[in-house]
Amino acid sequence: MLNQSAEYGLRAAVHLATLPDDEHASASDISERTKVPIPYLQKVLRTLTRAGVLKARRGMGGGFSLAKASNEITVLEILDAFDSSPQRIEKCPLGISGHTRLCPLHSLIDEQVANAVQIFATTTIRDILDTQSDIKPLCESQARVTLGLPTDKQTG
Amino acid sequence: MLNQSAEYGLRAAVHLATLPDDEHASASDISERTKVPIPYLQKVLRTLTRAGVLKARRGMGGGFSLAKASNEITVLEILDAFDSSPQRIEKCPLGISGHTRLCPLHSLIDEQVANAVQIFATTTIRDILDTQSDIKPLCESQARVTLGLPTDKQTG
DNA sequence: GCATAAGTGGACAGTCAACTCCACTTATGG
DNA sequence: CCATAAGTGGAGTTGACTGTCCACTTATGC
């Protein structure tokens, strides 16, 4: 569905959204919380910064924070930063002339893509945090405590 | 959404489904109709044959045909042959213990996947051919006539 | 203003999907 | 039974994505 970078980017954004508004988190803080290898995470964070999703601050006490309010950052926006938003089928993949719309085969596929894109475009990071669930995104506060024995169980 | 092989495999299956029941089409016939490079298509066809979607017949007059009725071949089945069915998220990608379900972030994504999988699992090749549309899958019969100048226009 | 914390940029290595080739096998038909 | 049509198997190439490293720049704070 989406590539590794996008998955990591989402985790980072969700984590940053849980922080008090003007607080920064360093790459290694985020890495711990999101379980993403630091070197790769740094690259991901840079990408999100260039895309205008995050703000970076250098130097001591620096780090990353959201560039706008969490309800102004859509999931799609983050996927796009990593070329990972599901691709709509714009025109016939066979490139045959004479038709102006997709045939049933490609319509079927494109419809599924369209559905997903629509949801991702209208869901913000805030929405994710606001979702009613006993499981918090990235396992939030409890995570640190239970972290001793990382098992492969179902989580979130 | 799906990889190239799966896209090619779907085209081939749809094309074969338009042929009279016991008729075979050679790889190069299918290549022409589906606009897929022959060498790669051959590999795709082999994969579908091994997966039990197609039957192959060697020697002169041989070729490929569907291994079962077109209404018994689902889109998902073909995607699966190429490891291209959208992957459900089974367990927390962060691998944190203590939770038994997905967190809101991963639920959101998994829901989109689930939707698509559900549709693909219940749509057969026959359904695609039966879809009401003035545009036929792979541009069917008219295609050969207009094929002289392949332009990049919208089709299906 | 120097030591140190922290982000930046870009180069580099591994893996996998996309795609190509070719030598081999099977079957038909004259 | 030989020439030829057609599928099979597997090796090889390229390029994108994943992931790592390091030298460099910026900012803080003592």
Mean pLDDT of chain A: 84
Structural class of chain A: mainly alpha
The ordered H/E elements of chain A are HHHEEHHHH
Q: Biggest chain pair contact, residues each?
A: A-B, 60 and 60 residues
Tertiary shape of chain A: elongated
Oligomer: homodimer
| CATH H level, superfamily name of chain A | Winged helix-like DNA-binding domain superfamily/Winged helix DNA-binding domain
Give the % helix of chain A. 40-55%
State the helix count of chain A. 7
CATH architecture of chain A: Orthogonal Bundle
Residue fraction in strands of chain A: 5-15%
Could you please describe the fold and organization of this structure?
The structure is a homodimer of 156-residue chains. The first copy, chain A, has a two-stranded antiparallel sheet with strand order 1-2. In chain A, 42% of the residues are buried. The model of chain A is unreliable at 140-156 (pLDDT under 50). With 156 residues, chain A is mainly alpha-helical. Helices cover 46% and strands 5% of the residues of chain A. In chain A, helix 1 packs across helix 2, helix 1 (4-17) packs across helix 4 (75-81) and helix 2 crosses helix 3. At the A-B interface, helix 1 and helix 5 of A face helix 1, helix 5 and helix 7 of B. The structure holds a DNA duplex (30 and 30 nucleotides).
